[in-house]
Specification:
The structure is a single chain. The protein has 18 helices and 20 strands. It is α/β, with parallel strands linked by helices and about 475 residues long. The protein has 3 domains: about 55 residues, no CATH class; about 200 residues, Endonuclease, Chain A (2-Layer Sandwich), CATH 3.30.870; about 160 residues, Endonuclease, Chain A. The longest helix is centred in the first third of the chain and has 26 residues. The radius of gyration is 23 Å and the shape is globular.
């Protein structure tokens, strides 16, 4: 018969078995920063750590989803081949982005960068009202508030004209509104699907916080919107008003964005979407679409961002509401400063994610000490996500400079290769900095010790997420 001593021995043996197994497993499946945090947790709390690792430890999808995603690869490759232009010079960054995301840079685009929240929604409505064949919408948040109703009304009008309308919205990002949004879209006759609904059946189990964070609105294969803005009221969180950046694009790269939407649609529905012809314009901009996320083999956005920082010669500007860099990005930034590149990072003084804010604040000291210029955007949450290198190569998209966007989220980036678009983005960055307060190292080091403790504890936890 078992008594208390046997149970104690069994518990101790289980703990040590977990420690020994996880010491082998974790370093093979997690990047070094996350592995260190997991191993520390396993050392002190092996059984809770094992349970937590089973829930959120692996940043990958189950086999059935990986197989389904592989079926979409030939169509994306066909679109990429169509977009290939031998007359466009290939830079090291464009080649890397093509290798990571699958699509080449292409010429012949018109692009407008939109910073006004309400004007962006109105521009989407105008585009949907002008649609003739197809409208595709993919968003992280789709609310049933005034903004959501405005977009839904436009989609309904398109549907009544005989336009194909498809909507994807993330199940977790839209969680507070899911049922009402589904009902609103169904009442309008819109074919809308949840992205990555949380399922508990064993054979379909996936890490619940692997999310689709992309924001796309695509019209007739000729016009599209990509950036940081969700379909929700600007002040949907009490006390927080969002500022965003969205690119309005016309040109051949819309075909790549449509192919990304089609892949995401197939993953949720197993329904293939017939591609539209690639439409070219006479615009001057060279653009490149780059998807990233756990469906892909490597953390594409992180690798591209690190390479961009290494390639910079004069100035780097990174705008991100959430800043939790990995070691590769930190090293690249410090090296850039050491070779006398000006590095500006714009973050928000307004906080909407308190744990994330504590974790990112733990990096401020080493960034400031290395010579990085940190700017705290005043009054509103600067939810925009964009990067510019030497006023030549830029990114506008949905990716933050944090571990979540690097590893866990499906994201979309539009890469700007030179030209007026980079100059316009530089002017937007100057406006951001003018609306920000510089953070000084001496002021930062004067903060209370209890704040430092909370920040360091949050930093320990952040790689686990």
């Amino acid at each position: 018969m078992f008594d208390a001593s046997h149970l104690t021995l069994f518990y101790l043996l289980a703990e040590w078995a977990i420690r020994l197994v996880m010491i082998v497993v974790i370093p093979l499946r997690r990047p070094p920063e996350a592995a260190r945090s997991w191993l520390l947790l396993v050392l002190f709390l092996p059984i809770p750590a094992f349970i937590l690792y089973r829930l959120i430890g692996r940043a990958s999808f189950p086999t059935w989803r990986r197989n389904r995603f592989a079926k979409t690869a030939p169509e994306r490759a066909r679109i990429a081949q169509t977009l290939w232009d031998p007359d466009i010079p290939r830079s090291r960054l464009s080649l890397l982005a093509e290798s990571l995301g699958g699509f080449p840079a292409s010429a012949g685009h018109r692009i407008e960068l939109l910073t006004d929240y309400e004007r962006t929604i109105q521009a989407m409505v105008e585009a949907i009202d002008g649609a003739e064949t197809r409208v595709h919408v993919l968003t992280y948040i789709f609310a049933d508030d005034a903004t959501g109703q405005t977009i839904t009304n436009a989609l309904s009008r398109a549907q009544l004209r005989g336009v194909e309308v498809r909507v994807l919205f993330d199940a977790l990002g839209s969680r507070p509104w899911v049922e009402k949004t589904k009902a609103m879209l169904a009442l309008a006759g819109i074919d809308a699907r949840l992205v990555l609904p949380v399922r508990f059946a064993a054979l379909r189990r996936a890490r619940g916080d692997l999310r689709n964070h992309r924001k796309l609105c695509l019209i007739d294969g000729r016009l599209g919107f990509a950036g940081s803005q969700n379909i929700v009221d600007r002040d949907f969180k009490p006390g927080v008003v969002n500022d965003e950046l969205v690119a309005r694009i016309e040109g051949p790269s819309i075909a790549a964005l449509d192919a990304i939407f089609a892949s995401d649609w197939f993953l949720e529905t197993r329904e293939a979407i017939e591609p539209l012809p690639v439409i070219r314009t006479e615009g001057p901009a060279i653009l490149q679409a780059m998807p990233s996320g756990p469906d892909f083999e490597t953390p594409g956005y992180e690798r591209l961002l690190v390479e961009m920082v290494h390639a910079a010669e004069e100035r780097i500007t990174i705008v991100s509401p959430y800043l939790i860099p990995d070691q590769a990005l930190l090293t690249a930034i410090r090296n850039a400063v050491a070779r006398r590149v000006r590095v500006d990072i714009v973050i928000s003084s307004v906080v909407d994610q308190h744990l994330v804010s504590l974790a990112q604040r733990s990096y401020y000291d080493e960034l400031l000490a290395s010579g990085v210029r940190l700017h705290l955007y005043r009054d509103r949450l600067l939810h925009a996500k964009n990067v510019l290198i030497d006023e030549e190569i830029g990114i506008v998209g949905s990716s933050n400079a944090d571990v979540r966007s690097f590893v866990l989220n499906a994201e979309i980036s539009v890469i700007l290769h030179g030209g007026e678009a980079g100059q316009h983005l530089a002017a937007i960055h100057d406006a951001y900095i003018a609306s920000s307060d510089p953070l000084k190292l001496e002021d930062w080091r004067a903060r209370p010790k209890r704040a430092r403790l909370a920040e360091n504890l949050a930093r320990l936890v952040s790689p686990l997420l």
